[in-house]
Amino acid sequence: MKTESMSDRVNNLVKAMRAEVPDCVAAGVVDMSTGMLLAVDTMDSHPNEVLDMLAAATFDLFRGRNVVTIENIFKERRGVVSNSHYFQEILVNSENLVHLFLRSASNDDLVAVAVCRRTVNVGMLFASARRVVKEYNIA
């Protein structure tokens, strides 16, 4: 029995997100330790600069200076002593799209991104995306 490489799991996760998350027009995985987009699958072709900006924006959402400060304040006020990150999922609504960012439960350096049409049922978006990320266990 052949075991999948990390690269294969990331690529398969992105394909599964596009196929199984309702109204999904694009999916990707960002490595927070390097700030790089590891994989992407999208309906339209986008210039590399746009994809690089997605990776940078994802990094800022989860590890920007102000975000880390807020996480630390929340943990301190709640008496949590841990190096883990407080924010695990972030939903962003734009004019035409919904962007869901999910931190991997097994490796907090990896964030999966699903971009869907604004018509998506947000509950189904969360349920489907969470199931796919858990299934592919990107560690």
Automatic annotation (TrEMBL):
> From which domain of life does this come?
Bacteria
Protein name per UniProt: Uncharacterized protein
What species is this protein from?
A: Wenjunlia tyrosinilytica
